[in-house]
Amino acid sequence: MAAPEVHHLFHNPIADHSFSADRKTLAIARDTTVELYSKVGSAFKLKDELKGHDKTVTSVDIAPNSGRIVSCSQGKSTPVARNRHGVVLDRNALVWEPSPQGYKPTLVLLRINRAATFVRWSPSETKFAVGSGDRLIAVCYFEEENDWWVSKHLKKPIRSTVTTVAWHPNSVLLAAGSTDAHARVFSSFVKGVDSRPEPGVWGERLPFNTVCGEYLNNSAGWVHAVAFSPSGDALAFAAHDSSITVVYPSGPDQPPKAVISINTQLLPFMSLIWNGEAEIVAAGYDCEAFRFKGGLNGWVLSGTLESKGRPGLGEGREESALNMFRQMDLKGKVKDDTQLKTVHQNTITTLRPYETSGGSVRKFTSSGVDGRIVIWHT
Amino acid sequence: MSIIQQHTQATLSDAWRTINIDALQEDSSVNFDTSTLHPALPETSEAEVRQLTNQVRQLLRGGDAEGALRGCLESPVYRGRDEAKEAHLQTVIEVLQSIKASDMTPMLQRIYASPGGTECLDVLMKYLYKGMAVTSGGAGKSNPQTPTRMTPQQTGFSQMSGRPGGSSESTGGAMSVLLSWHEKVVDVAGLGCIGRCMTDWRKV
After folding, report:
1. In this predicted complex, what is the ipTM?
2. Region A358-374: what's the mean pLDDT?
3. What percent of chain B is helix, strand and coil (3-state, nearest 5)?
């Protein structure tokens, strides 16, 4: 397994990151700005800063084909802008259109009065979903005649903050995780924007806000991450009870074929991605990524992706007697144990596929509270 | 009339200050139905707990400590009267106290590796924390006579403060047993086990 490629960008937490389709541009949610980095040689250099949010940016996503960037932030509706119809818009979410003069923000009518927590483009790129502390998900689509992004709300039966969302490959079904410990699958079908989806395991007729599934772990932790398998026929979610759960639905209005929960000995996972139908990579508070393997008949934790005994970290210092006594004098101990043995030195916040071939992920990226972006080989 | 007097009069008549406005708001967190956060739980009666205690004691007498431990961990009292919950806790502590320190880790590893083992150790962890709460701070609560036995010292420092009543010897002993089990459980089931005790709404 090749060594991971580590980019230490700064000493601030990275809430979320996203690469452009050509992998040359990297968008980072840092504090109240979205920073754009471009690859120069083997390093990432700051190229542009998108300033439009006045509160902490919580999530950012680049649409692969159109290059549009959507970002969302905390801070409830601050009426700071009016569009040409005089309607007051808030700046919880912004869509940044690429243009020769740089990125120009388009406003989004979210109609929420709590923080926006998470945003993702649908695979079709005609919609995006924003999770919020207002106990709803805003499904946004562009309205040509008014020149703004409007939203429809998925409200029922969410009872607490939505922490994460994930799209089904058909761009209609949407999975969401919430602090009420439930992972849910909704239909976000918008007439005139979506084409009618093929009937599948999640349901046949799918009008807006159809609840196609609602799942709860026995030990009921906040849900931190959700993801559909590449086929879209299975759903995985990670919760604050240090577990991941995989759901295999059997059809509309029927109990699922299997709901498999793996309670781990580790700290909770913050993010997870599928690698094919039989592997999941998850990472979080343990600062390293772990691999799960399995299928309909069960899942197991198969190990870490960290290569143990990697040279470098913490071993560069010479072990002279002088150094030993200096350490004892300065710190009262011989060994410098302030560094973790993992590549990330703090919680991993987001995992994203980086290079895929034929349904399986060959490389993926992780971003962490330590300000690092790491490109891993699976 | 001085400002201070005005202020006092105003405050005295301010009965509205005690109204719990959160309760009046439908969206408020105090009106959140937490029973939606766990699967439906069967109710356990005191008679059932007593029956289980007898079975467990029989296993203990027969030398099958592991079976006894499994027995109480597989049927935790999640829903039932406080007396039933309390009785089951006592059974668990009894079993824990009867197991030798050298047997703890191998036994926990065997339970963890068996099907349903993670769940068992999560339940054990819940009972350990409950046991600690009862034997330390909750001693006065579970045993209402205790404070009267103490010399009332309303001011100043009491040397007895941490160890109320004459039962301090036994509670101290129970606590050290619970602490050594806690250490062993964390070794086997990891930190995830502690996290699950916190998130889980099925309380013992």
Report:
1. 0.85
2. 94
3. 70, 0, 30
